[in-house]
Amino acid sequence: MTRKKVKLAYINNDSSRKATYKKRKKGLMKKVSELSTLCGVDACAIIYNPYDTQPEVYPSPAGVHRIVTKFKKMPEIEQSKKMVNQETFLKQKISKVSEQVKKLKKENRDKEMNRLLYGNLSGKMNLQGLTVTDLNDLTWLIDQNLKDINKRMEKIAKDTKSARMAAAAAAAATVPPLMNGEVKVNVAATTAANNINDHSRAIQRQQWRGDSNPQNQANINNNNNNPMRFGGRDVIFPLGNNNKNNWVNDHFT
């Protein structure tokens, strides 16, 4: 069961006030002792009360005198730097609570504007009847969302570019060292094959023209031993002659 919160106000009843004093004094002395032991700091307490002729001190009169003397040797500015009285303490407390209230109001306002924005996008709510302040806050929220979206898109683009560069670097690292030499050999072989094909086509053109050079004619006759085959018959059509039927009649009839 939770303890009931005590109202911080002066207790008018004498007996209740005295009982509360004894209880709270004991707790205060215990807390000072724990603070000094756990944190290794110099701490003391002096309590004057109307019920005793001598004040209550912790840890002892000698210890209190030592700590107070050390305190008085400090410059006055340092002495009052973190010193507070009841009024200052309450002002600090009020300021802290005011900041918390302001933060909560801002969070609630943001939630309200988000609900209005998404409700309008889904068609469940409209913007009619909004004040100028509401519209300004809604505009600010939309701008913030757009900024967040742009930042996220830039991050995705940057990550994608980095991934592509890493993949390209990994692919380049897996290429064998002799790849360049193999490419050169393949290029040379391709060039030689192209030269042979060009020579063969030149011989065929000479055959179609009826070259008069005996040496070339001999090369043509030798090449005719392996004619091109189309559909089971030895047929070679000269380049540039579109009248295929006339050429066939002249040579095979």
Short description:
The chain has 253 residues and is mainly alpha-helical. The protein has helices spanning 14-39, 61-72, 76-79, 86-121, 132-173, 179-209, 214-224, 244-252; strands at 45-47, 56-58, 229-230, 233-234.
Q: What's the layout of helices and strands?
A:
Elements: H1 14-39, E1 45-47, E2 56-58, H2 61-72, H3 76-79, H4 86-121, H5 132-173, H6 179-209, H7 214-224, E3 229-230, E4 233-234, H8 244-252
Antiparallel strand pairs: 1-2, 3-4
Strand share of the residues? under 5%
Q: Please identify the structural class as seen in this structure.
A: mainly alpha
Instruction: Identify the overall geometry.
Output: elongated
Bin the helical content. Answer: 55-70%
H/E element sequence: HEEHHHHHHEEH
Q: Which strand order spans the largest sheet, edge to edge or round the barrel?
A: 1-2
